[in-house]
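Appendix C reproduces, verbatim, an entry submitted by the partner laboratory led by Prof. M.T., so that reviewers can inspect both the input and the predicted structure.
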Amino acid sequence: MLMLIALAFSVASIVPAFAQDPAPQSDESAASGGSEYGTESPAETPTVPGTVAKIVDGIAYAPESAPDAIKQLIWAGNDIVGMPYLYGGGHGDFVDEGYDCSGTVSYALHGADLLAKPRDSSSFLRYGSVGKGSWVSIYTKSSHMYMTVAGIRLDTSAADDRGGLKGPRWRPLRKSDRGYKARHPVGL
């Protein structure tokens, strides 16, 4: 009987320590471009008060009042800011040496668990819901696309951006979205 009590006490003291160990990250999630967000330091997940994102030195700061998916989307976009424009980039896999317009949007959406596999700009014509979203809008046509998130734009084109740099970058909103079809993730 004394042996059973000692064994029960020993097991009880081991279980809580085991239950508190964090689950290891899989290699797949680490290479997915953002599906394991929430474990980074605050410097990698910058925020600003309110509901509008802010661009600081090329990096987007997510609004504190935004839904978690919007924050994840913005932080994922930050991962590829400044990478070169590469036609077809980001389409074989989310992780690439450069990104084109739809590869950029695909990467950011995937980082927020809003897209399972990369899409081209034409296939985004059928993504999510029709029209502008309350937090994120995807503007697409057969030849180009970009995305607006919480008042800023993720785009590979330098249109309406005085900086003039190409490749994935956070930019100010365009003066007009004419010629593009608007879509948005359901609920956002």
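The chain is about 25% helix and 20% strand. Additional entries are available on request from the coordinating office.
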